[in-house]
C-alpha cells in the first residue's frame, strides 16, 4: 500500500487542520498515513527562532488567527483561539509515539488537537493525556509509564533529529518518496504524490 | 461587479503563480481584479527583514525552489529557477501603475513575470520593459516617460504605504471587503469571498 509520512507537533495550529482531515482523505486515495510526531520547537531553535514565527512576527501571527478561523470554517472544524501559543506538548508527544506502535495514534492525536485548538485547554499534563487515553478505552497508567521510559524519551529526540536531517523546518510536513511537502495547504498534493507513486509501482 | 484587490511585486515568485492565473479564475466567478503593485522589499525592510525570507532562511528557500517547480507543473506554467532572487523591479512596477490606469496592466504583468520566472531575465531595465510594452502594441517611450514622472514615482511609494497600512506582510496578498488573504494558496478562497460578497449585495 502507498504510504505518506505526516510530521506534526501538537502545538502547531496548521498541523491541527491536517490531523483532523488526513485519515479520511488518505482512505479515499488508498494511502496509509505514517504519523510522525516531532518537537517543532527544537527544530525552530536550531534555525535560530526562539519560538513560533507567528509569535516572533506579530503581523503574521495576527493574520494567522484570522486565517485559522476561516480555514476551520471552510473545513467544518471547531476552532477557539488558544489563550496560550504555542502550547508545549512534550508528554502528549511521548505518548503519541507509543500510540504509533500500538495503532491508536490517529484518534489520540485528534483528541489532543481538539483539546488545544477547539477547547483551548493546556495539554502538556497527565490529566489531559489520561482523559484522552481513557476516552479511547485505553489503560492510561500503563501507557504513560511506557511513554516516560528513557528509551521512549530518546526515541522522540531521535525522531526530531531525523526531521532535521530531512530538512524539515515547519509543521505539518509530509514526505512521500523523498519529496517534502510543507503546510496543510500541500496535504492534497502530498496525498496525490503518494497515490501516484503507488500507481507507478504497481 | 464584485472586485478583488491583487497586491503583488514582480520580484515575488508566488505572485507569479497568481498573476498568471487570476484573470481566468476571476472571469469564471464574475469578479473584477484590481491589480495593486507595491514594493515588497520596502515592506520587508520595515518588518526587519533585509531581503526575502527565502534568502534569509536558506532551508526554506531550498524548499521553495522545489515547491515552485511542482506548483508550476501542477498549473501548467513554465518555470526556470531565477539566477537572481529576489529581482528588483522598480521600473516595471512604476510602468505597471500606468498600465492600471490605461487598462493593460494584466497582460503587461504576465509578460514581466514570464521574463523573470520562465526566462530567467533581469527585468528592472528599459530594454525588458520596452520589449514587453511593444509586444502589447503600446508606445513604450511615452509610457516610460509617464512612469518616470515625480507624480507616478510618488504614487508607487504611496501604494506601498497603503499596503503597510492594510497590514500586508507578503505577496501575493488579496483583499476582499476588508478580508486579507495571503499567498497564492488563498487565491481560490479570496475569489470565493469576493464572489460571495457580490451575491449578498445583489
UniProtKB/TrEMBL annotation, chains A, B:
Active site: 12 (nucleophile)
A biological process from GO: glutathione metabolic process
SUPFAM superfamilies with a match to the protein in the record: Thioredoxin-like
Origin superkingdom: Bacteria
Catalytic activity from the UniProt record: 2-hydroxychromene-2-carboxylate = (3E)-4-(2-hydroxyphenyl)-2-oxobut-3-enoate
Annotated ranges, domain DSBA-like thioredoxin: 3-189
Family membership noted in the UniProt record: Belongs to the GST superfamily. NadH family.
Name of the protein: 2-hydroxychromene-2-carboxylate isomerase
Organism: Janthinobacterium violaceinigrum
Amino acid at each position: 500500500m502507498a504510504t505518506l509520512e505526516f510530521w506534526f507537533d501538537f502545538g502547531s495550529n496548521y498541523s491541527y487542520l491536517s490531523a483532523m482531515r488526513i485519515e479520511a482523505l488518505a482512505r479515499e486515495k488508498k494511502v496509509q498515513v505514517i504519523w510522525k510526531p516531532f518537537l517543532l520547537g527544537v527544530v525552530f531553535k536550531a534555525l535560530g527562532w526562539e519560538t513560533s514565527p507567528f509569535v516572533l512576527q506579530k503581523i503574521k501571527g495576527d493574520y494567522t488567527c484570522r486565517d485559522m478561523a476561516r480555514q476551520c470554517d471552510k473545513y467544518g472544524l471547531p476552532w477557539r483561539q488558544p489563550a496560550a501559543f504555542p502550547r508545549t506538548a512534550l508528554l502528549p508527544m511521548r505518548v503519541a509515539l507509543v500510540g504509533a506502535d500500538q495503532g491508536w495514534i490517529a484518534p489520540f492525536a485528534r483528541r489532543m488537537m481538539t483539546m488545544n485548538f477547539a477547547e483551548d485547554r493546556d495539554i502538556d499534563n497527565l490529566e489531559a493525556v489520561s482523559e484522552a487515553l481513557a476516552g479511547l478505552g485505553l489503560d492510561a497508567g500503563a501507557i504513560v509509564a511506557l511513554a516516560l521510559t528513557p528509551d521512549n524519551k530518546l526515541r522522540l529526540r531521535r525522531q526530531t533529529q531525523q526531521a532535521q536531517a530531512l530538512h524539515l523546518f515547519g509543521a505539518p510536513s509530509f514526505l512521500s518518496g523523498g519529496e517534502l511537502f510543507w503546510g496543510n495547504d500541500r496535504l492534497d498534493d502530498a496525498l496525490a504524490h503518494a497515490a501516484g507513486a503507488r500507481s507507478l509501482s504497481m
